[in-house]
Every structure is written in C-alpha cells, then in structure tokens.
Amino acid sequence: MKVILKEYVYKHGVAGDVVTVSDGFARNYLIPRGLAIKATPGALRESQHLIAQAAQHREELKNLENEVAAKIHGVELVFGMKAGKNNKLYGSVTTMDIARALEEKTGVDVNRRRISERSLRELGIHEVPVRISTDASPVLRVVIVREEEVADYLEGKPVPSLIHLAEEAEAEAEAEAAAEAAAEAAAQAEAADAGEAADEVVGELAEDLAADNDAPAEAEADE
Asked: pLDDT of 13-30, one tens digit each?
C-alpha cells in the first residue's frame, strides 16, 4: 500500500515522503497512530505542501542525527556485575540496560533496537555501535567490571578484572603473531625448496638439450 508519511518513521522516511509499505503495517500501525495516510488522489492533492517539504525534512533529520551521533560517540558506560572466575557474568548487560545508562549520562534517548549488540555476558571493555542512520554509527565504550571494582575504576585505579583480561589479550596477540611468523617462515622455506627444485629441473633440461645437440656432431665425426 502507498502511504503519505505525516511524521518521521524509522527506516521508512520523513514527513511528506510517499512510500510503499505492507498493508498490515499501514492498517495496523501507521494509519491508526496518525503517522501516515493512504496515498489516494485526494490525499495527494491535499498533502502537496507536506510532500514539497520532504527534502527539507530529510536535511533537518540528517543534521539532527549527526548531532546525536557526535554527542554519544565514545561515551563510556560502566556496569558493575557479579561474575564467576571464568569472567562470565551471572546474568547479562542488555541493550535496554545500555539504552537506559546512555540516557542517564547524556540525556539522549536511543531505541534499544538501534544498539547493534546482543546482550553482553563477559567482563571487559566492549565497543558497541549504535545505528543512528545509514551515515551515522557512533560507538559506545561499555565497561563491565565486578561490582566491588566499580568505585576503583571510576577513580582511575587499575582493577583486577581488566588487568587480567588485558594480560590474556596480550598473550593471545603474541601467540597470533608467533603463529603468523611461523606460517610466513614455512611459506618462505617452501618457496625456497620449490625454487631449488625448479633450478634442478632447468639444469637437467639444459643438460638433455646439450646432449641432443652434441649427438649429430658425434655421428658426423664417426662417418
């Protein structure tokens, strides 16, 4: 069904846009909530002023989205959670938890569905992107430490949870680097062996060719 949007609708458009949506979405959500009207010839005529302003609405929305993205990009949210010795949480930090904490800290109310992350279930520092628009995807820094470590972390003191995780990450990085170095060395050795084998083959072919060239001369000498 074609409808004329009367207000901004996430992923569909701004006021004045004429868009095609499913019949159910239009009848059960957009029209009853006053977000859109069916795009009949009469409605199109009556809404020409709104349709003409759609481009301006899109520009205003883009500016607002960029402002919001700039305001929340890099914001750090700290959660104190109970966790086992394996750093797994007894529970999780959900997108709703993140949305609430973000609003409390910045005043920006972001729909949890725009937070591009599943529930977080481990201690550590997590980079969490937020889908503001196709052009704006700010990233939040979500820090999860043990409950008893929150005060120390907020005061800038090192906390055991993050120190331990940093050491593990460093060890993993070193192991990956060593594996890459070993793989590169093996590849170089294999290439060198292949080069030597190729040289041997070329040498043998050269010897065979030389022997073939000498054969007629020897036959003439015998005659």
From this structure: 889 999 999 999 999 999
Residue 6 is part of a domain; what is its CATH number? 3.40.5.10
Q: What is the pLDDT of residue 135?
A: 82
Q: Each residue of 115-169: pLDDT tens digit?
A: 987 899 999 999 999 999 878 899 999 999 999 999 999 999 998 888 876 555 5
Rounded CA separation 115/64 (Å): 18
Buried b (16+ CB within 10 A) or exposed e, 61-81: eeeebeebbeebbebebebbb
Residue 146 lies in a domain: yes
Task: Give the list of residues 6+ apart from residue 6 with CB closer than 8 angstroms, or none.
Answer: 15, 34, 35, 36, 37, 50
Question: For residue 215, is it within any domain?
Answer: no
Rounded distance between C-alpha atoms, residue 193 and residue 151, angstroms: 60
List the Cα angle 157/153/97 in 5-degree steps.
170
Domain at 79, CATH number: 3.10.430.100
Domain housing 108? 73-157
pTM for the predicted model, two decimal places: 0.64
